[in-house]
Specification:
Blueprint lengths: L5 E4 L8 E2 L7 E4 L5 E4 L4 E11 L4 E6 L2 H7 L1 E3 L4 E3 L6 E8 L5 E4 L3 E9 L28
Antiparallel strand pairs: 1-5, 2-3, 3-11, 4-10, 5-9, 6-8, 6-11, 7-9
């Protein structure tokens, strides 16, 4: 399944997102920077991609970590998953956080994250006095599977 997504390069050095394989769910996003960026240990830096998207209504772009960048350099999106709404037309940027204990470098044109385009459902929240009962009830974190 595919969906048409209009894209604009805001910088002539920007790369259009690419898929690494025929069945890849995420398209790679590239750093659009002059030279390189250094990210100090436990620091977060916003990295521009130089692109803007026009996602169809009913779709969102979810920005996830690239497993190679996360495991090799300790770099991953600071907010864990970024969300690009379908009505957003600004530059897509990735807040990369350095989870490692040493400074890391991001080079111009380096793949920094992956973008997954997905449909979404909006809820109609209805306030009510009581919720239906379940076996789990109010059990919180780690409560399922306990006896």
């Amino acid at each position: 399944m595919s969906v048409k997504v209009n894209i604009t390069k805001l910088n002539e050095k920007a790369f259009i997102p690419t898929y690494g394989s025929e069945y890849a769910a995420g398209a790679d996003l590239y750093a659009c920077v002059d030279g390189e960026i250094e990210i100090l240990p436990h620091e977060t830096v916003v990295v521009p991609t130089g692109i803007a998207l026009e996602l169809p209504v009913g779709y969102a772009g979810l920005i996830y970590a690239r497993s190679g960048l996360a495991t090799k350099k300790g770099l991953a999106p600071a907010n864990k998953v970024g969300v690009v709404d379908c009505d957003y037309r600004g530059e897509v940027k990735v807040a990369l956080h350095n989870h490692s204990g040493q400074a890391q470098r991001v080079d111009a044109g380096e793949r920094i994250a992956q973008l997954v385009i997905t449909p979404y459902i909006t809820a109609q929240f209805v306030e009510c006095g009581e919720l239906s009962e379940t076996v789990r009830g109010c059990g919180g974190f780690g409560s399922t599977g306990r006896k």
